[in-house]
Structures are given as C-alpha cells and as structure tokens.
Amino acid sequence: MNMMSKKEVGFADLLQNGQTLKEFRDEILARTQASGHYNGITELEFRDNDPIGYEKLFSKLRGGLVHARETAKKIAASPIVEQEGELCFTLYNAVGDCVLTSTGIIIHVGTMGAAIKYMIENNWEANPGINPGDMFTNNDCSIGNVHPCDIATIVPIFWEGKLIGWVGGVTHVIDTGAVTPGSMSTGQTQRFGDGYMITCRKTGVNDVPLRDWLHESQRSVRTPKYWILDEKTRIAGCHMIRELVEDVIRAEGLEAYEKFAYEVIEEGRRGLQSRIQAMTLPGKYRKVSFVDVPFKHEDVQVSNAFAKLDSIMHSPCEMTIKANGKWRLDFEGANRWGWHTFNAHQVAFTSGIWVMMCQTLVPTQRINDGAYFATEFRLPKGTWCNPDDRRTGHAYAWHFLVSGWAALWRGLSQSYFSRGYLEEVNAGNANTSNWLQGGGINQDGEIHAVNSFEASSCGTGACAVKDGLNHAAAIWNPEGDMGDIEIWEMAEPLLYLGRTVKANSGGYGKYRGGCGFETLRMVWNAQDWTMFFMGNGYMNSDWGLMGGYPAATGYRFEAHDTGLERRISKGESLPLGGDFDPGAPTYEHHIDATARVKRDKQCMTTEDCYDNHDLYLNYLRGGPGFGDPIDREPKAIEADLNQNFLLPEYAQKVYGAVFSQDDKGVYTVDVAKTQARRAQIRKERLARAMPTREWMKEERERILNKDAATQVQHMFASSFGLSEKFTREFKEFWSLPEEWELHEEDLGVPTYGARYRMDLSLLPDVTTVVQVEE
Amino acid sequence: MATYTDEQVSRLVDGSLDWETTFRMLSMPKDSSRFAQYLAALQAQVPFKDRIVLPLGPHLYIVQSAKTKEWVTQCDCGHVFCGYRDNWKMHAHIYVRDTEAAMTEVYPKLMAPDTKWQVYREYYCPSCGTMHDVEAPTPWYPVIHDFEPDIDTFYKEWVNMPLPERAN
Fold first, then answer.
1. How far apart are CA A559 and CA A587, in angstroms?
2. In Å, how far are A294, A515, A599, B128 from A391, measured between CA atoms?
3. Residue-wise DSSP of A646-685
4. Which of A5, A69, A746, B112 has minimal Cβ neighbours within 10 Å of its Cβ?
5. What is the per-residue DSSP string for chain B?
6. d(Cα A26, Cα A28) in Å, to the nearest integer?
7. Which residues of chain B have a pLDDT value below 70?
C-alpha cells in the first residue's frame, strides 16, 4: 500500500497574518474600490515624511531592476534577447501588483502580475505550494500572456518565512514548438497549435530547475540551445533582483520595504492622473483601426475549413478624459475574435498599453500598476481583445494590439495638439511588420527556427514639428534595435543582398512619417528550409493625422529557381539593394527569366519551401504622416528626393513639388513654381470633391444594396452581433430602415464559432481573473 | 517647471524652433502657460479677427465669432464649417479614393490599400481646398466624429483661464 506524505496540504499562512493570499488581495481590492486610492492609501506617508529615504529606495530598486536586465541578457544567445532587448524584469508585491519594472518589453508589468493573481485566485499556496526557492513558469495566453513566445519565470520572495513579493522575468524566445516554426508563427488557428503552453507551473525548487521540466521543455521547441540560455537569463535576473530586495530589507527594514511596495503604486496612480491633467484635454475622442486577415488566399494553408475566409479586425475606441484626470478606454463595437493567431487576452491589452504610454504620456521610470488603477478599461467580452472561448490562438496578438493602440495615440495627439504641446504629437505607429519567420535545417546542420526582429526598427509617426524617425523603433519595445547584419547572418541561413531605406513607405504630410526599410535575403547553406510572411498588405492599420496620409501598406516579393548560384559563379549581375519602385521592379532583371516570382499584396502566408539561392524581401513598414502634404517645406522634399526616400513621381503628385535634376542626379525644388502648382492642386481637389452629405447619399445606397466586399460586410456583421449600441448608431448614422439587417450567416462564409463558444472560466476548478469591465 | 518665451512658442508653432529647446520641451515637465502662449501665437498668424478658443488642427480651429459670439469650427481661410459641437467633416467637401487608379495617384503600385478592403476619404475646406483630414476606413464606415472637447472644464479647472463668451 502506498502511504501518502504526512505533510499537511492546506493553509500555508504565507503572509504570517492568518490570511490566505486571496483574502489579503480581496481586502486590497475592496479598499481600493471604496476609497478610489490603491489599497485605501489616501496619504503618501512614507514619501511625504521621508522623501529622500523614499527616493533612495526607489532608485536602489529601479536601478537594480535595470542592472539585472542588462547583466542577465548577456547570458542569452538569441539575438532577439541579446541584440533586440526583448526581455524585462518586474518586481511585484505579495498580491502580484507591480511595484517597479526594468526597461525593455514592459508590457509584462501586467502579464506576469496576472499569472501571480491566477496562482493566488486558484490557491496555488495549497497546491502545488509556494516556498522559498520555488520557480514558476508561465506563458499561458488564456490567463493574460500576450503570446506564447513570451516565457515568464516567476520567483516568490520571502523574508524570514513571510511572502513579501514576487519577481518575474520574461524573454521572447525564438520558437515555441508551434505548428510552424518561428516565435509568432501563423497557420495554426487555435491555442492547440500555438505551441508549448505552460500554466504557472512549478518548474524549480530550491533555486534549481526540475529535471522533468528541463527534459520536457527542451524537446518541446525547435531551438533548445536558445531556449536553455533564455531560461538561464530569466533565472539569473530574478535571483539578482531577489537578492537586491533582501539587501534593501537588511538596510531599510521590512516595514519600510513593505510600506514602499504599496505606497509606490498609489503614487503611480496619482502620477498618471496628474500627467493626464498636465498634458491633455478633457473630452471624448473617437478613433478606429483595422487589420486585414486575408486567409482565403491559396498561400495561407490552415488545418480547418472554417478558418478559410478573409476577415477584418475592427477596433473602435472611445477615449474619455474626465475632469479629475481619470480616463476611460471603451472598445464597444469591436468585433469578434477569429480563427487565427491575432487574438489578445484582456490583460495583454490593459498591460501592454503601458509599453506605448511610457513613450508618450508617462515617459518616466515610475511605471507600475498604479497606471492601471488610474484607468477604466471596457473591453466587451467576446471581442478580439477579450475572447470568450478557450480555444483562441494568440501567437501574434501584437498584430491587432499595436493597430488598436495606434488609434489611442492619435487621440492623445489630438489633445497634445489642441493644448499646444506640439512636440508630443505623434501621428501613430507603424504596423510593425513584416515578420520574416521560418525554419528547417540551418547552416550548422541543426533543426532551427528564425524570427527576424528587424521589425524592431520601423518608421515612427510624424510629429507636429518634425518628421517621424526613419527605421527607428517599434511600439512594443521602446529600446528596439534592428540588429547587426553580421549577427543575423550567424543566426539565420540568409545572406543580405541589400538593406535600404524604403522609399515612399512613410505617410506623406507636412511632416512625413518615418520611412521603414527593406532587406533582401538570399537563402544560403540551408536544407529543407521554409519561410513565410506576416504583416499588413490589403489595409493600413494606422491613419495619418490632421491631413497627413497613412503609411504605405505592405507587399511581398519572393523568388524561387532564381539561377543565382550560376550567376554568382559566372560573375553575372545580381539583385542588390532595395526594391526602389515596385511599379518598375528591377530585381527580376538580375535573376533567371524562368524564376518563379511572387509579387503581390498577400502579406500573410504560411510555411513554404525555399531552396538555397531563393530570395525573400523583408519590407519593414513606415509610420503615418501629419498635416496637409502641400504644406511641406520644399527643402524637405528636396532632401527626400536626394536621399531616395521619395519617388520623383510622388513628389510631384502628392507634394506639388516642381523640381529639376542636374547631370549628377541632384534634385533641386523650385519654390516659386511649387507654390503655384500647389494653388492649382487646391483647385483640383475641389473640382473632384463633393459635399460630404451628397456623398453620403451615394454610400447609403451602397449599404442598402449590400454593395461591399464580403470581408467588409463580415466585419460589420460580427460587430453588430456583439454590440447593439454599435448597430443602432450605424443605422442611425446612415438613416437605414428598421428592417435593414446584416448577419454573418447570410454572407456565405464559414460561421464556426459565431454562435457556440465556451469560456475558460467554465472549466472545473478554474477561477479566472477579470481586470476590466466586460 | 520650465518656461518658454512667446517667441520660442511661436517658433514651435511654425516649425522653426531649435532642437535643443524642443528637446527640453520633450524632456522637462510641461509648462502650464503654454496654452495661453500657443493661442497668442496662432491668433497673430490667422487672417481673421475671430478669437481662437481651441485649435483642432494646423488650419482648423474652434473660434468665437467676432460678430455673433457663437463658437464655430472654422478654417484658417475664414470658412465656417458649423457650430463647434457638430462634426465639421459633415460640412466639408470629400474625395474618396476607392479605386486602384485613385490610390496609385498617391502611392506606388502595391504600396496602397486594396480598395475592396479600405478607402481613403480626404476632407477639404470647401473654400480654400486645404486637406484637413484623411480617414482610412472600410467602405460603409460612418464619418467619425473624432473629438468632442470639454472646453468649459479645460478653461475653468485645468488651465484657469476665463472662458470666452459663448452665444450658442
């Protein structure tokens, strides 16, 4: 007979106050709710009575977090972590609310906090137990993670047997063992294909990873070498920070530390409200974003017939800034999640938003959960940003998130502009793509996967006083970097034949969006190699601002059977540099005429085979523009022409520039002639335009006749299905008759999932953590 | 708190402010007097006598009509779109890029949206042809009422300035 351990499983008294973690957390939430202040903290006693001591503690902890990140990332071999800085460390109090965070991908302020809260709400302290030296690993997207490739290691921090907090470290791994290779692969349509999924699993005791975990996890992904070093990175950082906290408590005492760990969150809450009052303007702002999901194309191969349709993500946002500096973000009207990998958990949304806000509204070191408590989020249940089905895929949730947030950025920029803080205006952010991903046998003969993080350096949106930055940043990582060619060529069996600024990719305007860039890659020394594309092509997810145009959309170029092996050996011409004008392409002049070339707007594909010497163009998008393009300074147009940032045809058509080119190829814009041409453009505009209300009559007829592409109708139908308000407002706006209706089932496309769904909360013994109005 | 001269704010508005000062504006806590200085700089530029209440865009303002004291949305050429609570776009002229040919007027081949998915709606001032906004929605999308500022709260509680008289 097997005898069970005599060790009692039950109340652990981790807080040494007779309360479970859940009871303790519930009280904090109740005090926050009742008082409007985090944990009922109405006076910042520590900060006010001992401001220097408070700042000292703050600096010590914050400095330690940044130091841990900088040191630990050197352990990683993955260029995503080591070069691009896709990692972050965060310190939490005992209930999983963020105290402080490092630099890096600070979206995880909330995602790791959500994992801790999930452990609290589901009584992890009783089973599997929470002890000093434990390690927990999480990447579960149904409880708050953004996408499965963000692997979090979470370590509890004890002081003399009392749980006083947690530290979490996250890295973006190269591969998650999904259906197809790459950290954000596409093709799978559900969670079950998204890769290895770990739910707050205890993966280490006494500071040592468990052997079953190591064996299982390393063979569950394609890139174990990187996986192992990524985990060591996370563990090292977490342990450095745990030690830092111990040092701080030894120096300052437990009471001071614990007081700080709660008070600083209330300070963060107040900080956001005062920033909003100092920088913005009260009122209502309405913006919207879209993303194309073109899955009907033959180059998108999915395992389910019901996923084979073109659809559009719809993200309307009403941002209300209140008199007291609180703000409310309401996504009523957003449409349903889909059978793809771009769905986002509510926490990915509410947590992720701070990675953007720290680049605009709160550009300080004081990022913690205080900002969350100063914000009202309304993400209707069942939408793409708060799915109500436990099957949803999330591998590239960012695809929708960054697009949804672009609308917020425009709303905030309206407020900055109206208030006169022109230097803060940003027309939006690039659709951070393309994602070059794939895998196979690499140049070292090993099974490998790649995800080029060159998308870390897209063009930024234009400001109200200057152009956006070229190939500079990504919204999801304020410290993004495109990485060195030499490092990428070591990590990927793909040689660079070009790396060039992408002409016309930045949105036009008085100030243009930053240009993206493009890299031409040639497969080299790989075996059984595959790649795919992931980005926007048929639509823009950003808009311009105040008369500026959106950035250019994406397109794809790939070439097979190129004859490049022969051309190289014979010293013949090669395709090099950029695809300067896709309307007059030149790459095709330097490969065999019989090559198979795909040049189109299908920027979403699944794993396809590439032989050595095949080509792949990685085009990273630009940012949106600001202001009427015919206000652009002639000198700025001249500079764009001379740097190949702008095709001459569009300098004429969009900017009204009149220019000449000398025999050395240098452009000069004629100011007087340009001014005259612009006067003409104003007349041409009015000649082709009509009063908005007249145009609305025509558009109304098209709506009555159901005259729109199926994917457009599908988008509206799936929003109507979730929101009576959106339906009512749509019908009112267009003065549609009461009987006008639009339903998914009438569109002749698959409707699987439209009516029957099952949420994670319906699983036995599961308590989900809800942090938004639904 | 940093402060800036009227000339510096004026230069910011016309895009000629030196980078060092612009960078200071970005990195330092915000100057609370900016709004008043901003209004003064803009008022000095516009050709009309109406008082600017709130700037909406580089050429678009909510103004207090000098004649009627009504608040209206107005182009800097002097064209009045509508009362300030209305959506000015409904009173603008519109041009919709909803064909491939119209899109390739502004973007190279393959670099513009597919108009079956998305169109560009350009909103012009009916008098001077200034392009005040470009919307990029799907077909059928309602004209968006972007911004309904709470000007009373802003003036009275946030920047502590007297609210201009309003007849409507």
1. 9
2. 21, 38, 34, 54
3. S-HHHHHHTT---EEE-TT--EEE-HHHHHHHHHHHHHHH
4. A5
5. -----HHHHHHHHHT---HHHHHHHHHSPPPTTHHHHHHHHHHHH-SS-SEEEEEEETTEEEEE-TTT--EEEEETTS-EEEETTS-GGGGSEEEEE-SHHHHHTTS-TTSS--TTT--EEEEE-TTT--EEEEE---TTPPPP--EEE-HHHIIIIIS--PPPP---
6. 5
7. 1
- The chain A residue lying nearest B10, using CA atoms, is A420
Length of chain B: 168
CA distance B139 to B120: 9
Three-state SS at A708: coil
In chain B, pLDDT over 90 holds for what percent of residues?
Answer: 99
Strands (E), A365-405: 375-378
User: Over the stretch A30-84, which tens digit does the pLDDT of each residue have?
Assistant: 999 999 999 999 999 999 999 999 999 999 999 999 999 999 999 988 888 887 7
Q: Is-contact A713 A740, C-beta < 8 A?
A: no
More confident residue, A419 or B1: A419
pLDDT at A85: 82
Helix (H, G, I), strand (E, B) or coil at A248: helix
Cβ–Cβ below 8 Å for A283 and B116: no
A626 Cα distance to chain centroid: 23
Identify the bridge partners of residue A500 per DSSP, sorted by sequence position. A518
For B15, the closest of A465, A583, A628 (CB atoms) is A465
Q: Which residues between 370 and 409 in chain A have a beta carbon less than 8 angstroms from any beta carbon of chain B?
A: none
CB contact under 8 A, B139 and A712: yes
How many other C-beta atoms lie within 10 A of the C-beta of residue A644? 15
- For chain A, the average pLDDT equals 95
CA distance A554 to A551: 9
Nearest CA in chain A to B152: A282
Q: State the residue for tokens 């045809």.
A: A649
pLDDT at A340: 97
Question: DSSP states of A88-131 as a string?
Answer: EEEEE-TTS-EEEE-SS-TTHHHHHHHHHHHHHHTTTIIIII--
Which 3 state secondary structure label does DSSP give B76? Answer: coil
Torsion sign over Cα A172, A173, A174, A178: negative
Mean pLDDT lowest among A166-170, A191-195, A472-476, A612-616: A472-476
The whole-angstrom separation of Cα A757 and Cα A36 is 35
Residues in chain A: 774
**CA gap A499, A281 in Å, rounded:** 42
Neighbour tally for B7: CB within 10 Å: 11
In A462-501, the residues whose Cβ lies within 8 Å of chain B are 464-466
User: Which of residues A11 and A548 earns the better pLDDT score?
Assistant: A548
Residue with tokens 């605009």: A360
In A, minimum Cα distance to B38 occurs at A420
Q: How many CB atoms lie within 10 A of CB A679?
A: 13
Q: A287, A292, A518, A712: best mutation site toward chain B, by most B Cβ within 10 Å?
A: A712
Is A323's Cβ below 8 Å from some Cβ in B? yes
Which residue, A496, A430, A493, is CA-closest to A457? A430
Distance of CA A385 to the CA centre of its chain: 12
**pLDDT tens string A213-237:** 999 999 999 999 999 999 999 999 9
pLDDT for the residue A8: 58
| Residue the block writes with tokens 């540099």 | A577
Q: Which residue of A279, A510, A654 is in closest CB contact with B106? A: A654
CA atoms of A681 and A658, how far apart (whole Å): 12
Q: What's the gap between Cα A454 and its chain centre?
A: 14
- ipTM of the complex, rounded to two decimals: 0.99
Please, are residues A307 and A186 in contact by the beta-carbon 8 Å criterion? no
| Residue A241 · residue A168 · CB < 8 Å | no
Q: Confirm if A57 and A248 have CB atoms less than 8 A apart.
A: yes
